[in-house]
Amino acid sequence: MSVTMPPQHPVDDTTPTEGKNLTAASRAKKSLTSPWATAAAIIIAVAWTIPTVALFMTSLIPGDRYRTDAWWTVLMDGGLTFENFNQVLFDSFGDNSTAPPLIEYVFNSIVVTVPAVVFPVVLGLMAAYAFAWIPFRGSNFLFVLIFALQVVPLQLALIPLLRLLGPENLGLAGEFSGVWIAHTIFALPLSVFLLHNFVSNIPREVLEAARVDGASHTQMFFRIIIPLSLPAVASLAIFQFLWVWNDLLVSAVFGSANTYPLTYPISNLAGDYGQYAYLVPPAAFISMIIPLIVFFSLQRYFVRGLLAGSTKG
Amino acid sequence: MGSTEVLPESALRSATDLGPDFWASQGQNLLFGAIAIVAFIAIIAIVMFGADLIKGRARDKVQLVVLVAPVLVLLGVGLVYPAIDTTWLSFNEITNEPDPDTGIFTTTMQFVGLDNYRFAFSDPSTLRTILNTFVWMILVPLLSTGFGLAYAVFIDRAKGEKALKSLVFMPMAISLVGASVIWGNIMYDYNQVGEQTGMLNALRELVGLDPYNFLRDDPWNTFWLIVILVWIQTGFAMVILSAAIKGVPAEMNEAASLDGANAWQRFWRITVPSIRSTIVVVLTTITIMALKVYDIVRTVTQGRDNTDVVANRMYVLSFVEGREALGAALAVILFVFVIPVVIYNVRSLNKVKEAR
Q1: Which of A91, A186, A266 faces B181 most closely, judged by CB atoms?
Q2: Cβ of B319 and A253 within 8 Å?
C-alpha cells in the first residue's frame, strides 16, 4: 500500500533520524520544552520497549516452569536458561517431539526471501526507467493504474492467482518458485512507484548527454540508471526484505510444508496453549533476530524508503 | 525435510549433528535459490543486450517493450485479472455435487447475484466480522498517528533523539506474528489460578486489581488486539511525522514564542497546520494496513470470542472451509472499504505530477 507523499527526493540529505543542527532558534525552543513532555516521551519509549524485552526474558524460562512461574520469578532464583533456544532451533519445534526443528524454517525463510527481493527490484527498476524517461502512448494511464494497484488488498487476488499457479495450470504452487512469483507480483506496484519517484529526479542533462552520444535504452539503463539508482534500490530492497521475511499470508497460501517460512509454524503453535507452549517465545525471538539486525544496521536506508513515499502491507 | 527420530531431551542435537539429510536438502534449496537469481539476471541481460543488436528505428521500440512488458504482464495476469475474477466469483455459487446419473462429482458455478453479499450482511457472525474490521480501520490509524505525533513532538531536538526514535521504531522490524506472540502469549497472558505470568495481569495484581482475561472479554478483546497493531504502526507514523516537523521553518516557532505563544499553542497553530498533508498521508496509509491485516487475529485468537476480522475470515472461508465464493465476496467488501483511499491517492498523485 502506498500514498503520495509531498514531492521529496528519496536521497534527500536531511537524514530525519538526526537532529544535529542546533540553531539558536532550536536551542531557544528546547529550553521551553516542558519537563512533562520529556517525562511523557520516556514513558512511551519504555512502554514500547518492554514487550520485546519481556519476550526475550520469557524465552529463557525452563519448560517445566513456563505455566506456573513468571520470568521475573525465575530470574530471581537464577533458573533462566538458554536451553529453549537450543531445543527449538535444533531439536524440534511443534506440538509433538517429532516436529521438525526451527532451523529448517530459518533456511526456508532465506530461500523464500532473497529471490523475492531481487526479482521485483530489478523488474521494477526497468519499468520505472521506461515510465520516467521514455515517452510512449498510454504511459501516464498505465503508471496511474500501477500506482492505484498498490492499495488493492492482496485478498482480492489470492484465489484466482492460486488457481493459476496451481497443479491444473503452472504447477508452481507449493514450490519456492510459486511463492517467489506471488511475492514478486504483489511487490511490483510499490517497487515501480518508489523507483519511479527516484529515477525521474535524475537530472535531465545527464540522460540527454548520453542520448546525444547515441546510447540506446539498454545502454542508458546499465550505464546511468543502475549506478545512479543504487541508494533507492537499497531502500526498497531492505523494505521488501523485511516485508517478505515477516510475511505470513502469501507464504501460507502459495507455499507448502517444504517452503513454509518461520512465521508459519510460530503462528500455528502460538494459539495452542498445550504442553509445548513454552517453545513459542524462543521461536518468535529467533524469527526476529535477522530482521532486527537488518533494521538496526540499515535503518537510514529503511527510513529513506519510507520517506520516498510509501509503505506497504 | 529433516530427520524425525524421537530423542530424549537430554540428547538434544546441535548444529553439527543435524545429519547429512538435513544439509543435503537445505543445500539443495539454497542452491536452487541462487541459481534462480543468477538465471533471472542472465536472462534479463541477454534479452536487453540482444535487443541492442537490432539496427534502425525498431531498436528503441523493442527495448521499450523489454523494459515495461514484464511488469505489465505480471500485474495484468497476477493482479488485475485475478481481482476481476474474484469479483465475478463473488456473484456466483460453487457447488460440488455428484451427478444423479453417473455419481461423478462435478463442480458447477451458478450465478446467484448478490446472495453472497446478502449472506455476509445478514449472518450475525459475518456481520460482526465486518463491524470489527470497521473498528480496526478507525482506531488503528487514529491511535498510531496520535501517539506517533505526540512522541515526535516530545523528542524533537531532544538529547538522544536518535536512540529514542529507534526504540519506538523497532517494532516495525518485527513480524506481525512475532508481535502477536509478544502480546498474546506474554503481555495478555491470563491464569485462572496461581501466579499471574502475563505482564499486564502481574501489573494489575501489583496495584491490587483482579486479574483480567484480556482476550476473552468481548467486545474489549478486539481493542486489545488493535493495541498490537498500534504498537507496530506508531513507529511508522512517528518517523514520517518527525521528518515533516523538521521541515517546519524554525523562524515560525521563534516568532510565535516571541509573541508569547506557549508550546501547546504553537503545536496547534503552527506545527499541525504546516504538516497537515503529511498527517493525512500517514492516516490513509495506516488505514489500508489495518484493513488487510490478518496475521494478528490468526495468531492470537483465530477469530474466537467475536474477534474475527474480514481478512482472516476471508482466508479461512477460501482456503480452509472451501467456501470460495463467500470468501471472494468478503475480499470485495475489503476492496470497497479501500476505494475512497484509491481515489484520494490518484488525485493527489495527479496534483504532484502537475506541480512538476
Answers
A1: A266
A2: yes
C-alpha cell recorded at residue A249: 499470508
Query: Is A189 in contact with B32 (CB distance < 8 Å)?
Result: no
Handedness of CA A146, A147, A153, A154 (dihedral sign): positive
Contact call for B83 and A25, based on CB within 8 A = no
Note the pLDDT tens digit of each residue in A124-164: 999 999 999 999 999 999 999 998 888 888 889 999 999 99
Distance (Å) of CA A166 to CA A19, A76, A155, A253: 52, 54, 17, 11
- Residues in chain B, pLDDT under 70: 1-18, 355-356
Q: Do B187 and A51 touch (CB under 8 A)?
A: yes
Q: What is the pLDDT of residue B11?
A: 43
Which of B67, B283, B307 to mutate to probe the A interface, most A CBs <10 Å? B67
Per-residue pLDDT tens for A251-288? 999 999 999 999 999 998 987 777 888 999 999 999 99
Q: Which three cell numbers stand for residue A101?
A: 526443528
pLDDT of B332 reads 94
Contact in structure between B287 and B236 (CB atoms under 8 Å)? no
Amino acid in the structure at residue B217: D
Residues 6+ apart with CB under 8 A from A120: A183, A184, A187, A188, A191, A240
Q: What gap in Å lies between CA B229 and CA B213, rounded to an integer?
A: 19
- Chain A to chain B, count of Cβ pairs less than 8 Å apart? 440
- Residues of chain A with C-beta less than 8 angstroms from the C-beta of B319: 158, 252-253
- Test A144 with B349 for CB contact under 8 angstroms: yes
Query: From the list B87, B151, B246, which residue is nearest A41 (CB)?
Result: B151
At residue A70, the pLDDT reads 87
The reported pLDDT for the residue numbered A166 is 87
User: pLDDT at position B1, please?
Assistant: 37
pLDDT of residue A221: 93
pLDDT score of A114 more than 90: yes
Question: Mean pLDDT for chain A?
Answer: 84
Report the interhelical angle of A226-246 vs A102-133 (nearest 10°): 140
pTM of the model: 0.86
Å between B103 CA and nearest CA of chain A? 23
Ranges in chain A annotated CATH 1.10.3720.10:
102-307
Whole-number pLDDT of residue A13: 39
- What pLDDT does residue A20 have? 42
CA distances from B272 to A32, A272, B5 (A): 18, 45, 62
State whether CATH 1.10.3720.10 applies to domain A102-307. Answer: yes
pLDDT value for A302: 78
Question: A69 — contact with chain B (CB < 8 Å)?
Answer: yes
Give the ipTM of the model, two decimals please: 0.85
Report whether A101 contacts A89 (CB < 8 A).
yes
Contact B158 A184 (CB under 8 A): no
CA gap A173, A179 in Å, rounded: 7
**Cα angle vertex B115, ends B77, B82, to 5°?**
5
Quote the percentage of chain A above a pLDDT of 90: 47
Contacts of A299 in chain B (CB under 8 A): 166, 169
- Residues 49-68, chain B, touching A (beta carbon < 8 A): 49, 51-52, 59-60, 63-64, 66-68
φ and ψ at B214, to 5 degrees? -50, -45
